[in-house]
């Protein structure tokens, strides 16, 4: 009698906890369906989640809860349902453990792990007490396996055998095609030279950061009305092509199921110059990508994806340019192209904050706001972190120096991984061996020498003395202050927006993010900008951290004498003033970007060192700096 009463009590309380579990599921399912941003922010996750997948998770929770219902009504009558309810909690425990280990947000998922683990133990214990021995897990499993075996034996031995074989073959065919068209990784042939590897090899970005190759190739035609310059292709956004390659420098081919392209380090770190508009341009790997208009390129993709007939137009264009097999066409029509559109629209949400800030223009990007908002899920704090894209040559003497414009990190490998993460690399997707090859090559790759000749050695000799007196202590390798933050903003006087955009909260989040090979323990918060080494300074125009001063000559002027407005995006070099052509009929009205130094984040004030020299001394100093 006591055993019977105990069993009845166990079943009754099991059913009660089933309904408690259903109620808890609804607490998560309803916000996931209708208020996903609120749900994410409650758990400290990025507010711009992957839609519609979060809502899909909400629907799955509703479905699971409906599945629980029979066990909540009469567990003894539906023992298989009841034990599956217990098993589902164990599966959830394994899932939360996986997310804690891989997602980078361990604190967000620990409460869910603890609640599902508790429900698994409570439900399992109550059901074990409440059901007779023949309805406990092992007898049920054994009976189920025997029944399945008998069913299969009858199916394959009787009249249904042909149908079963057909079903198995169809499933095998569908599974293979799905693997071949969506998941199979085809390694790209290795590139023999390190410089070609830098320019064209993949470093391993996540699926949302890759663009299907066929989609990428047809977009300039499909969305021609949105291109900044008709008929110029991707060069309209500052992409640099060289002979023998069908993709621009900085885009790597990668095939995981379907061929795709993904950016690598060279996209933002390959410059170009020419002496006159008639000259052949010279690409310079590891130089700042002064022509690349990354923000305009992003919004071209986002706005193009916003067209309601995007999928149909892209499919038609692909079929006109490429020979696709019948199965391949189905995957592109129903999966690959629609998923690409959804990825663009998701990124449009993630980067909506850009529209609230001054346009970046060519050669510039906001370095840490994407990490804050798209990677770590911070709310928009209205900061502006726009800076010039830097050079990345000659890294060996920079080891242990403080890097980034504000000197927030002195670990080169860490800095490189953080940059990759900001553009879409994840701990799971990154290719450490490929990444290491790039990092090692950059250690010894030298800065470019002045290519135009005609140096006045007498003037340069006088300029060297001026450099040693006025500049070397902060900008020469081997000096104590080089690569350090030594001067406060009150004295330095440069635009404060970038240094203010890198916050203590972001430092804390970097330190918490430890997912091999990503480990960001060296980050720190500073209050000013670092003293940057000046090797290859001639090719690093425009100057200052935000690219607000077009030439070295302008940098040596008092701030009120520097250009208030100039144009960016020209590759024609001014060999006298040292910088790219930024004014005059060559650029005005020619599709170049108008840079206004009066806008927030664009101020050209500060760094008045050397501005008190005479004009003759300034020209001497510039002549010497051409040699750096």
UniProtKB/TrEMBL annotation:
Pfam families assigned to the protein according to its UniProt record, in alphabetical order: RoxA-like_Cyt-c (PF21419)
InterPro entries associated with the record: Cyt_c-like_dom, Cyt_c-like_dom_sf, Cytochrome_c_Peroxidase/MauG
Listed transmembrane segments: 17-35, 50-68, 80-100, 112-131, 152-176
Gene Ontology molecular function, alphabetical: cytochrome-c peroxidase activity; electron transfer activity; heme binding; metal ion binding
PROSITE patterns cross-referenced by the UniProt entry: CYTC
Span of domain Cytochrome c: 458-628
Entry keyword set: Heme, Iron, Membrane, Metal-binding, Transmembrane, Transmembrane helix
Keyword RNA-binding listed: no
PANTHER family listed in its UniProt record: BLR7738 PROTEIN, CYTOCHROME C PEROXIDASE-RELATED
Protein name: Cytochrome c domain-containing protein
């Amino acid at each position: 009698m006591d055993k019977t009463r105990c069993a009845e009590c166990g079943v009754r309380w099991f059913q009660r906890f089933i309904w408690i579990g259903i109620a808890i599921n609804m607490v998560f399912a309803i916000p996931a369906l209708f208020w996903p941003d609120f749900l994410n922010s409650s758990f400290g996750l990025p507010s711009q989640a992957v839609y519609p997948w979060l809502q899909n998770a909400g629907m799955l929770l509703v479905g699971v809860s409906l599945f629980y219902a029979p066990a909540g009504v009469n567990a003894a009558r539906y023992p298989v349902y009841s034990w599956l309810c217990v098993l589902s909690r164990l599966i959830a425990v394994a899932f939360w453990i996986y997310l804690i280990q891989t997602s980078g947000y361990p604190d967000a998922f620990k409460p869910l792990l603890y609640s599902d683990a508790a429900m698994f133990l409570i439900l399992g214990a109550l059901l074990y007490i409440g059901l007779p021995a023949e309805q406990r897990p092992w007898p049920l499993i054994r009976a189920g396996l025997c029944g399945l075996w008998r069913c299969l034996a009858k199916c394959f031995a009787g009249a249904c055998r042909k149908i079963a074989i057909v079903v198995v073959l169809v499933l095998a065919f569908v599974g293979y095609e799905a693997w071949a068209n969506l998941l199979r990784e085809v390694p790209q042939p290795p590139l023999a030279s390190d410089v070609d590897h830098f320019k064209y090899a993949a470093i391993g970005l996540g699926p949302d950061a890759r663009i299907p190759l066929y989609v990428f190739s047809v977009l300039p035609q499909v969305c021609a009305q949105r291109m900044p310059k008709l008929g110029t292709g991707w060069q309209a956004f500052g992409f640099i092509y060289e002979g023998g390659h069908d993709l621009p420098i900085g885009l790597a081919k990668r095939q995981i199921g379907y061929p795709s392209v993904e950016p690598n380090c060279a996209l933002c770190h390959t410059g170009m110059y020419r002496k006159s508009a008639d000259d052949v341009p010279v690409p310079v790997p590891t130089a700042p990508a002064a022509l690349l208009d990354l923000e305009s390129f992003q919004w071209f993709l986002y706005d193009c994806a916003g067209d309601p007939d995007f999928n149909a137009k892209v499919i038609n264009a692909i079929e006109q340019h490429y020979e696709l097999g019948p199965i391949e066409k189905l995957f592109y029509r129903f999966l690959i192209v629609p998923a690409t559109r959804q990825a663009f629209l998701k990124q449009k949400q993630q980067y909506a904050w850009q529209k609230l800030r001054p346009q970046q223009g060519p050669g510039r990007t906001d370095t840490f706001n994407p990490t804050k908002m798209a990677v770590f899920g911070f709310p928009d704090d209205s900061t502006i972190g726009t800076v010039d894209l830097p050079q990345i040559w000659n890294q060996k003497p920079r080891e242990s120096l403080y890097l980034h414009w504000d000197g927030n990190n002195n670990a080169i490998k860490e800095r490189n991984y953080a940059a990759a993460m900001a553009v879409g690399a994840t701990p799971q997707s990154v290719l450490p061996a490929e990444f290491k090859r790039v990092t090692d090559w950059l250690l010894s790759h030298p800065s470019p020498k002045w290519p135009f000749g005609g140096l006045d050695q007498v003037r340069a000799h006088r300029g060297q003395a001026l450099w040693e007196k006025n500049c070397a202590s902060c900008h020469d390798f081997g000096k104590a202050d080089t690569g350090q933050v030594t001067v406060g903003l009150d004295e330095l006087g440069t635009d404060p927006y970038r240094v203010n955009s890198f916050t203590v909260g972001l430092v804390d989040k970097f330190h918490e993010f430890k997912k091999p090979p990503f480990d960001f323990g060296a980050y720190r918060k500073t209050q000013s900008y670092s003293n940057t080494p000046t090797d290859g300074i001639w090719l690093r125009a425009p100057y200052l951290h935000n690219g607000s001063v077009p030439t070295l000559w302008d940098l040596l002027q008092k701030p009120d004498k520097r250009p208030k407005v100039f144009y960016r995006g020209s590759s024609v070099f001014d060999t006298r003033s040292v910088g790219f052509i930024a004014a005059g009929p060559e650029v005005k009205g020619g599709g170049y970007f108008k840079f206004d130094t009066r806008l927030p984040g664009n101020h050209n004030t500060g760094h008045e060192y050397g501005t008190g020299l005479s004009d003759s001394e300034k020209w001497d100093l510039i002549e010497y700096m051409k040699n750096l």
